[in-house]
TrEMBL record:
This is Fructose-bisphosphate aldolase. It is an enzyme of class 4 (lyase). The keyword ATP-binding does not apply. GO terms for molecular function: fructose-bisphosphate aldolase activity. It is found in: Plastid, Chloroplast, Plastoglobule. It comes from the Eukaryota. Pathway: Carbohydrate degradation; glycolysis; D-glyceraldehyde 3-phosphate and glycerone phosphate from D-glucose: step 4/4. The keyword Lyase applies. It catalyses: beta-D-fructose 1,6-bisphosphate = D-glyceraldehyde 3-phosphate + dihydroxyacetone phosphate. GO terms for biological process: glycolytic process. Plays a key role in glycolysis and gluconeogenesis.
C-alpha cells in the first residue's frame, strides 16, 4: 500500500525551514490561562483577559523582534485576540516576519496505572481545531507532554508520551501545521546528568519509532527537547560545555538529519544559563539548526520590568530584545556575554 503524503508537504517543509533560519528562534508565549495567571500573580496582577492582552501586546509589538525571533507560540485566546490598539495579534506577528504558532494540547492529567505520572490530552477533535487554527493564520503547532525522572519514568508513561506526540504530529501535518514535538524531560530531581542522558535516549527512541509508524514527514517537523542536564536538586552542577557535549551526543544518536530544527526549551534554567548552554552547542557545525524556543528564559526579566505599568512597556520590550538578541547570537555560536 502507499501512504498519502500531506497535500501541504511542500508548505510544511518551507514553514519549518523559515522557523529554523540562521540567528533566529522561537518565543514561547503560549502559557495557558492558569500558567499565565501564576506569572501575572508574581507581579501582583489579576489574571484577567485585559491583563493577559496587555502583556501579550507588549511582547508581539517589541520593535524589531523579528530579527531574532522566527516564530511565536500562542495560546488559543491570543490567536483570536487583538492588541490593545485593536490590531489582530496574528497580523502584528506577520508584519514582524514572525510565524504564528498555536499550542494545541489540552494539558496534563494523571495517568492511571503509572507511578503518579501524567499523560497529555487533546487528540479528540484535534483535526477540526487544527484546520480552524490554520484558517486563523497559525502555521505551526506545539504539543507539550512531560516525562518525570524521579517518578520513573515507567515504560507505560514513556510509551504514552511518544504515541500521543506521534498522533498529534500526523494530524497537524495533515492540516498544514508544522508540529513541534516536545517530550519535556522535567528538570526536577536529584539525579545526575548520566541518568538524564539514559532516560532521554529511551524517550527519543520511542518518539521516533512512533513518528515513523505514523508516517510523519521528518522534513516537516521541529523538535523541542530538554537539554541534557543534572536534576535541579543534584549536588553536582554541569558546565555549559558538559551540557553541550551530552546533549549533542544524544541528538547524534537519536535524531535523523532530515529534521530541520531542534528548538530547546529552557525548563527553569536562568536566562543567562539557557543562553550559555545554547551557545556551547553551536561552537561547531551541526546537522540540524540548533536554537531556542524559550518562554521563561526570554520573558522573566521582561515581565518583572513591566510590572503591569504602561509607562514601563518600552523598558520591558528592551529587556525582551536583549534576551532575544543574546539567544540569536548563541544560535550562531557567537555569544560572548
Ligand atoms: P520554558 O522555556 O519556560 O521551559 O517554556 C518553554 C515551553 O514552551 C514549554 O512548553
Amino acid at each position: 500500500f502507499t501512504v498519502r503524503a500531506s497535500s501541504y508537504a511542500d508548505e510544511l517543509v518551507k514553514t519549518a525551514k523559515t522557523i529554523a533560519s540562521p540567528g533566529r528562534g522561537i518565543l514561547a508565549m503560549d502559557e495557558s490561562n492558569a500558567t499565565c495567571g501564576k506569572r501575572l500573580a508574581s507581579i501582583g496582577l489579576e489574571n484577567t483577559e485585559a491583563n493577559r492582552q496587555a502583556y501579550r501586546t507588549l511582547l508581539v509589538s517589541a520593535p524589531g523582534l523579528g530579527e531574532y525571533i522566527s516564530g511565536a507560540i500562542l495560546f488559543e485566546e491570543t490567536l483570536y485576540q487583538s492588541t490593545i490598539d485593536g490590531k489582530k495579534m496574528v497580523d502584528v506577528l506577520v508584519e514582524q516576519k514572525i510565524v504564528p504558532g498555536i499550542k494545541v494540547d489540552k494539558g496534563l492529567v494523571p495517568l492511571p496505572g503509572s507511578n503518579n505520572e501524567s499523560w497529555c490530552q487533546g487528540l479528540d477533535g484535534l483535526s477540526s481545531r487544527a484546520a480552524a487554527y490554520y484558517q486563523q493564520g497559525a502555521r505551526f503547532a506545539k504539543w507539550r507532554t512531560v516525562v518525570s525522572i524521579p517518578n520513573g519514568p515507567s515504560a507505560l508513561a514513556v510509551k504514552e508520551a511518544a504515541w500521543g506526540l506521534a498522533r498529534y504530529a500526523a494530524i497537524s501535518q495533515d492540516s498544514g501545521l508544522v508540529p513541534i514535538v516536545e517530550p519535556e524531560i522535567l528538570l526536577d530531581g536529584e539525579h545526575g546528568i548520566d541518568r538524564t542522558f539514559e532516560v532521554a535516549q529511551k524517550v527519543w527512541a520511542e518518539v521516533f519509532f512512533y513518528l515513523a509508524e505514523n508516517n510523519v514527514m521528518f522534513e516537516g517537523i521541529l523538535l523541542k527537547p530538554s537539554m541534557v542536564t543534572p536534576g535541579a536538586e543534584c549536588k553536582d552542577k554541569a558546565t555549559p560545555q558538559q551540557v553541550a557535549d551530552y546533549t549533542l551526543k544524544l541528538l547524534h544518536r537519536r535524531i535523523p538529519p532530515a529534521v530541520p530544527g531542534v528548538m530547546f526549551l529552557s525548563g527553569g534554567q536562568s536566562e543567562v544559563e539557557a543562553t550559555l548552554n545554547l551557545n556551547a552547542m553551536n561552537q561547531s557545525p551541526n546537522p540540524w539548526h540548533i536554537s531556542f524556543s524559550y518562554a521563561r528564559a526570554l520573558q522573566n526579566t521582561c515581565l518583572k520590568t513591566w510590572g503591569g505599568r504602561p509607562e514601563n512597556v518600552k523598558a520591558a520590550q528592551d529587556t525582551l530584545l536583549v534576551r532575544a538578541k543574546a539567544n540569536s547570537l548563541a544560535q550562531l555560536g557567537k555569544y560572548t556575554g
